[in-house]
Amino acid sequence: MLQIKHFSLRFSLYGKGLEQRDLEVISSLDVDIKAGELVSIIGSSGSGKSLLAHAVLGILPANAHLSGELYYQGQALTKKALEKLRGREIALIPQSVTYLDPTMKVGKQVMGVRHDAADVEAVFRRYKLPASVMDKYPFELSGGMARRILVSAAVIAGAKLIIADEPTPGLSETLAKEALAHLRELADMGCGVMLITHDITLALEVSDRISIFYSGLTLETALRRDFEDGGRSLRHPYTRALWKALPQNDFSPLPGFQPYAGTVTEQCAFFPRCTMATEECLHPIPMRDLRDGKVRCIHAA
Predict the structure, then answer these.
(1) Could you read off the pLDDT of 187-233 as tens digits, one per residue?
(2) pLDDT by residue (tens digit) across 145-155?
(3) pTM
(4) 165: nearest Cα among 85, 71, 48, 258
(5) Closest CA to 93 of 161, 42, 36
(6) CA gyration radius for the chain?
(7) Is the CB of residue 92 less than 8 Å from the CB of residue 53?
(8) Measuring CA to CA, how many Å separate 134 from each of 113, 116, 164, 183?
(9) Do 151 and 165 contact (CB within 8 A), yes or no?
């Protein structure tokens, strides 16, 4: 449904004296999502994962420059194609409920210009929202209700590809699991779902595959089952270290810090923190297939 190949993103910036420079924030990225599949993009702040969502939707600022290939159901995601697909077949569930217009009742916002009140009531019932919610403003809703409104807007549009950008911040664990269960339901109905999050524990409850972002790169894409044996089936040393750092596992800290996207040189981005690093890691490392997954590491076996 969605295929991203060798994708890079850079921004043109101006420094002192109008000196122009380019800052590359995503480098040689490969991601794909099939119909009926939920793929989670896991990464900490600054890894570039939200910029990927904006690139797919075509909502990047004017100083953004893209290279590589983006396809939706075999169709190149050009500017013209996105004008027809965005908000219809491709929908965004944003990370903040502030995307809802505070001056407009939520029923009218979800209804848009292509649906009537009966359509909205039907989709609201599906997400356990009473019809009376249609006459409320966003500030009158609880956090959980507002999240369900955002999901409803994507569903009523009939979207086939749904991008959920950090849909759980500020929610209790119960509400967060409920929000992700709605995304899992959409995937089970045949949609392709991209979940962008920093919470690997919650993501594993609903995902089919997990892609690990690090400083603008995909280091590994793994099946959910690869995380079920204590991380021994994981391929990249960073993914294994990330798994071991979780409280329910070894709770082992990983020394060092992730460099910001755009600051990495030609070497492996994880090189300064990796216990397996060798001189061979000082050169660009391509993504490769390994054991039903993908990895960007010469030492993975």
Answers:
(1) 999 999 999 998 899 999 999 999 998 888 889 999 999 998 888 89
(2) 888 898 888 88
(3) 0.88
(4) 48
(5) 161
(6) 20
(7) yes
(8) 15, 12, 23, 22
(9) no
**Which of 54, 171, 163, 159 lies closest to 110, judged by CA?**
159
Separation between Cα atoms, residue 209 and residue 200, nearest integer Å: 11
Amino acid found at 26:
I
Distance, in Å, from the CA atom of 60 to the CA atom of 228, rounded to the nearest integer, reads 37
Element (H, E) at 173: helix 173-188
Angstrom CA distances, 262 to 38, 72, 108, 216, 258, stand at: 28, 27, 41, 7, 12
Q: CA 301, CA 290: separation in Å to the nearest integer?
A: 8
Q: Could you give the strand order of the β-sheet that contains 209-214, starting from the edge strand earlier in sequence? A: 90-93, 161-165, 192-197, 38-42, 209-214, 217-223, 293-295, 288-290
Residue ranges of E strands in 80-232: 90-93, 161-165, 192-197, 209-214, 217-223
CA gap 125, 156 in Å, rounded = 12
Average pLDDT, the chain: 88
Closest CA to 154 of 233, 226, 227, 100: 100
